[in-house]
Design brief:
The complex is a heterodimer. Chain A is of the alpha/beta class. Chain A has 7 helices and 10 strands. The chains are: A alpha/beta, B mainly alpha.
Chain lengths: 224, 228
């Protein structure tokens, strides 16, 4: 199994405050990793770096074996292979379909191929009948499921989830956990922030504990 | 009270009879205001978005300057443009003074800061998750900004309508740069000022009613769009 990410001496500073200081971290392909740690431990900072939204202050990242060059177009290219889903996702105005199709349109996927992928993604989260509903009229749990479908429709290499199951009911949590747990079988790597200590077991994932911006316990090596 | 009632009745008769003077003034007003608003939007929207979306030194100063421009009296704008367009001015050779074009130029200067400021306010008030969400879904910078504009489109539309409102309702620029020439540069507001001073209160009232109706229609249009 190859390494999806390799982080080498990564530091992220905001002024004099060091938010993240990781000597070395490897994230293997097709596995689930749960990021745990107290508030301010650097979890979201790490996720933003992994999503190529925010460059580290220093250090190097290798994605699928290639060094990431933050100052050239390659970042945009990497960003298209990775999707980040926030705890409180933003749904664009328009219908559920418009939202789920957004990333596909950005990739130039149109017509039948687009419809097929949108339908498949909505089916995966049990929202097929919500296809033409206005996105802004959905409940919190439904919006979360649409955001998940929007991410899944892209069939990303890596899915990054920032507390995706916080503030939603148990039934929706169960449904989304089932969806997340099925992703490695499709080759998708998942990195998920959680405060639920039992979630790594339920998702059959590996834990990475962050403390004060540092990896507190070495995560298990990538199994071959 | 009788005077007011009879004036309103006379005004409604003038409107109903499509009095040529009323139609001319309304047509000129709408044409120069629409023209000025289009150009003000072309300058103001990108300016507001640029200032709102970028960080640069002296940004606060630029925002303060834009805010100040909103409060510039119309006669000052009229005076400034008059200086440029008058025969002795640098653009005097173009012969634009006392033409509808001159009113449009003045209108652009009045409306552009309003459109820019309202657009800027829309960007600042936008949900901060819009651009990151678009980026993380694979949008490039250009599409992400386009998505932001789409999400705040009603704010931007309100900016354009506010700009139109400023131009259609002002007197100073239209009077100084248009010259209030009957059938050519006479707008609703300059006609109201002139006719009222001549004692033609009903005529002024008729144009006042039309002006109010225009404002009402524009706002109804905005409300209709927002509901869709």
């Amino acid at each position: 199994m190859r390494a999806m990410y390799r982080l080498d001496s990564i530091r992220k500073c905001y002024g004099s405050n060091v938010a993240l200081d990781i000597e070395e971290l490897t994230i293997g392909e097709g596995r689930i990793y749960t990021l745990m740690g107290a508030n301010g431990a650097g979890k979201s900072t790490l996720l933003n770096i992994l999503a190529f939204l925010s460059p580290p202050t220093s250090g190097e990242i290798f994605y699928a074996g290639k060094r990431v060059d933050w100052h050239h177009g390659s970042v945009e290219e990497h960003r298209r292979k990775v999707t980040l889903l926030h705890q409180s996702p933003y749904l664009f105005g328009g219908t559920v379909y418009d939202n789920v199709a957004f990333g596909l349109k950005a990739r130039g996927i149109r017509g039948e191929a687009q419809q097929r992928r949108v339908d498949k993604a909505l089916d995966g989260v049990g929202l097929q009948r919500f296809r033409d509903r206005k996105a802004r009229e959905l409940s919190g749990g439904e919006a979360q499921r649409v955001a998940m479908a929007r991410a899944l429709a892209l069939e990303p290499e890596v899915l990054l989830l920032d507390e995706p199951l916080a503030n939603i009911d148990r039934e929706t949590t169960g449904l989304l956990e089932t969806v997340i747990a099925s992703l490695p079988a499709r080759g998708t790597t998942v990195v998920l922030i959680t405060h639920d200590p039992e979630q790594p077991d339920r998702l059959n994932g590996e834990s990475i504990l962050l403390e004060g911006g540092k990896v507190a316990t070495p995560h298990p090596p990538v199994r071959r | 009270m009788d005077f007011l009632v009879s004036s309103v009745v006379s005004a409604l008769r003038l409107i109903g009879a499509f009095s040529p003077d009323v139609v001319d003034a309304v047509g000129t007003s709408l044409a120069v205001s629409a023209g000025a608003t289009v150009f003000a939007a072309l300058f103001g929207i990108p300016l507001g978005l640029l200032v709102g979306l970028s960080d640069f030194p002296l940004k606060r100063l630029v925002v303060t300057f834009l805010n100040t421009l909103m409060a510039v009296p119309t006669v000052v704008v009229g005076l400034l443009v008059y200086g440029f367009l008058s025969r002795q001015g640098p653009l005097g050779a173009l012969g634009l003074l006392f033409t509808p074009t001159a009113i449009v130029i003045g209108g652009v200067l009045l409306a552009a800061p309003i459109v820019a400021n309202y657009s800027l306010a829309s960007v600042r008030g936008a949900d901060p998750r819009i651009v990151p969400t678009a980026l993380t879904l694979g949008a490039g910078r250009f599409l992400a900004v386009g998505t932001l504009i789409g999400e705040i489109r009603f704010g931007i539309l309100a900016a354009v309508i506010a700009g139109f409102g400023r131009v259609v309702s002002e007197v100073g620029v239209a009077m100084m740069l248009g010259g209030n020439i009957r059938g050519y540069t006479r707008t609703m507001t300059t006609a109201i000022a002139l006719e009222t001073s001549k004692g033609e209160f009903a005529f002024g009232m008729a144009l006042g009613i039309v002006l109010m109706m225009v404002a009402l229609l524009v706002n109804l249009f905005l409300n209709l769009l927002q509901r869709r």
